[in-house]
Amino acid sequence: MAEHPRFESKMMIDGALVDGQAGTFSNVNPATEEVLGEVADASAADMHRAIDAARRAFDDTDWSVDHKFRQRCLVQLQQALEGEQEKLREELIAEAGCPRAITYGPQLDAPLSDALRFPGQLIDDYPWETSLGDAFVSVTGANTTRMVWREAVGVVGAIVPWNFPFEVTIHKIGQALATGNTVVLKPAPDTPFNATRLGRLIAENTDIPAGVVNVVTASDPLIGEELTLSPKVDMISFTGSTAVGKRIMEKGAATMKRLFLELGGKSATIVLEDADLGLGAMMGIAPCVHAGQGCANPTRLLLPRSRYAEGVAILQGIYEGVAPGDPQDPATLCGPVISAKQRSRIRGYIDKGIAEGAKLLVGGAEPPDGLDRGFFVKPTLFVDVDNSMTIAQEEIFGPVLAVIPYDDENHAVRIANDSVYGLAGNVMSGSLEHGLAVAKRLRAGFLGINGAAGYGADTPFGGYKASGVGRQNGTAGFDQYTEIKSVAFPAVSEARRRRAEAGPPNQAAG
Ligand code: NAD
């Protein structure tokens, strides 16, 4: 019998677990429509207290320069999270409607294994200070020694969506804290409990100083916008929709925000002529996983005309075999979508697909049989889709696949790239070299060959085009949470130079 998690209702501001000035709001289980519990609802004043606390912790403590202390704190947080891993699992199944099987991978266990460890270890190896050596500067007529320092950006507003809430949060927190920033975390209103749990664990089980991490839950998305507007916040690290990402870019311009934006996608799988067709078609099941609520989900499947009928027949068999079901059941792949609003949005796309002339082969907009409660959508297979149709261009974020025929390889590449998005993609081929060659031609930030997925804390992840700006994870992600400071001073004797290159006293202490 699964352990029932005790949900944390309070937010965490300046080291204390607190109520919200706007009262509380309900967190609903999308599989049952039952209220799981109430959570603190922040007012704008609550958000500003959190921002002030983060600012103070950054400006008035040595958090940003004490590397060893930060490393210790990340280890403490890792242990605290591992201590409640099974409670977190139940919580994520309950509040995100995530199928249990997926919590053993990308929803929980995978990020928990490396999202704090990787940046924690990188603290030791990171080039915090690099010497450029001496140069003759004609203006002063003297030799100058130059150095480059990397420093934390400052206060980071971390804004998170509901589909992989813990995964996104822990990657943001890991990188932002390892680099010495302080954070105000704003979870999505649909999935607040994993974040309030994190807040409690930080307050009660780690030495992370008050104000370094604040967790602000709010039912009103515009409370999150206070982060974008505040001159006390240096950077926004946002994962969510492209529409909100654009708004953050626009609103953040006034205070010249540093931006890291992980946005939507409409990724394609290209099944090449030389591919194993069964394996290629299997990639078509991806939109059913977690009911298609994955940004990198390949929701367009491109089949060569020469093998189109055969591929469609395999896909039809696959889709007829997937039924949405209880996310608690370890055999479930396709759980509910997050809310009634999302469900009706997805159904609207299905209706539009039919209206624009795509052929509905499996599924549809009507409710699935036997599921009277919960926000379920039938796994839906559209074939004979033209890439100009709405269902091939817009992110549906539901269990809907668009199958598109292509004439030749150039045509396939053109279709795959004919999208405002550029987050991910897949190439299926009988030859690795061939697959890699086609992957090179695709305008997307993350490519898999023959179904391989390489997500992890050491791998940069992010989008081309409207899929975002910047990269999460890897050293590229780490870089993004730092500013670059170049320092020059008159060249000195060898002995003095070595002392100087050892860095300022506070950095050397780290
Ligand atoms: P969303 O953009 O509606 O909301 C994301 C977060 O932003 C939520 O916390 C929300 O409360 C907050 N928010 C909304 N308006 C805001 C504003 N004006 N200012 C500041 N914060 C605001 O997205 P969602 O519906 O929660 O999540 C689904 C989207 O996230 C999809 O488009 C999906 O592709 C994307 N996503 C992208 C990635 C990635 O890595 N590229 C990962 C997961 C999800």
TrEMBL record:
One of its GO terms (molecular function) is oxidoreductase activity, acting on the aldehyde or oxo group of donors, NAD or NADP as acceptor. The keyword Oxidoreductase applies. SUPFAM superfamilies: ALDH-like (SSF53720). It holds the Pfam family Aldedh. Residues 18-487 form the Aldehyde dehydrogenase domain. PANTHER family: ALDEHYDE DEHYDROGENASE, ALDEHYDE DEHYDROGENASE-RELATED. The active site is at residue 262. The keyword Oxidoreductase applies. This is Aldehyde dehydrogenase NAD dependent AldA_2. Keywords: Oxidoreductase. PROSITE patterns: ALDEHYDE_DEHYDR_GLU. It comes from Mycolicibacter sinensis (strain JDM601) (Mycobacterium sinense). Belongs to the aldehyde dehydrogenase family.
